[in-house]
Amino acid sequence: MSIVAWNARGLGNPNTKRALKDTLIKYNPLITFLSEMKKNQKYLERIKATNKFSGSFYVNPRGIAGGLALWWTENVSIKILRESVKFIDTLVSVNGEDLCQCTFVYGPPYTSEKQQFWANLQNFRHCSTVKWCIIGDINIVANQNDKDGGAPINRSHAQWFLDFMDVSGLIELPIKGGMFTWSNLRCDNDAIAEKLDKILISSDWSLAFPKAIGVLKAAVASDHNPIILILDGMRKKRKKMFKFESRWLLKEECYTSVSEAWAGNPSDNS
């Protein structure tokens, strides 16, 4: 079981739609959350239909900016608790069983909105007694190690976020596959990379899903990487057994290779 969250920076680009489809095929998510698509509901419904989701909820963009989309499969039941242009707060159940409160976020990019945004989210926890997970683009760099290049991080912004996590009893789920989730797509001295996308979980959520991990997928057609929350952990790939193909006997080099191998030192394992 998995959840995909991606700041896709628009879905009008064919490369972006292709990258989304590839991600959905690979991870087969129960839920997909997209932010900053810059497209209306009618357009997004056509894409949803081609990717076999049964349920959906949208927050339309303001003009040509923003926009949120939430898609889910028939195995998932989602109740929308509250929504805005910056989040969709939900209660999620899978196969009839309560799973958790899941808040899908696109954190405000403007300083004037950041502190109030995290204060509002903090109140959500006070209204809920179920396990809580937050996933998406939080738009804050939490510490200096989460940034490479450019000016030092804004400590006030980071503290607002850290205070929210502390009061709400949340921890960050590590994400495998890279240190940063956003880049300005520039090179050399102008390059900046930051960890803006996160998965935050409550302690009871962590106990309920002890194998859960976050995975970072390569960024394609966006300056953000998709992040994937895999609830049941990564499955180890089985080593393929060697199988001799009878058609190899038709090739002369097969006999040469076998003869050389038999003629070698039996104790040589190289």
UniProtKB/TrEMBL annotation:
Q: Entry's SUPFAM superfamilies? A: DNase I-like (SSF56219)
- Top-rank taxon, per record: Eukaryota
Annotated membrane-spanning segments are none
The Endonuclease/exonuclease/phosphatase domain sits at 5-224
InterPro entries on file: Endo/exonu/phosph_ase_sf (IPR036691), Endo/exonuclease/phosphatase (IPR005135)
Which PANTHER family does the protein's record reference? BNAC02G09200D PROTEIN, OS06G0205337 PROTEIN
Question: What name appears for this protein in its UniProt entry?
Answer: Endonuclease/exonuclease/phosphatase domain-containing protein
According to its UniProt entry, this protein's organism is Hibiscus sabdariffa
Q: What is the lineage of its organism?
A: Eukaryota, Viridiplantae, Streptophyta, Embryophyta, Tracheophyta
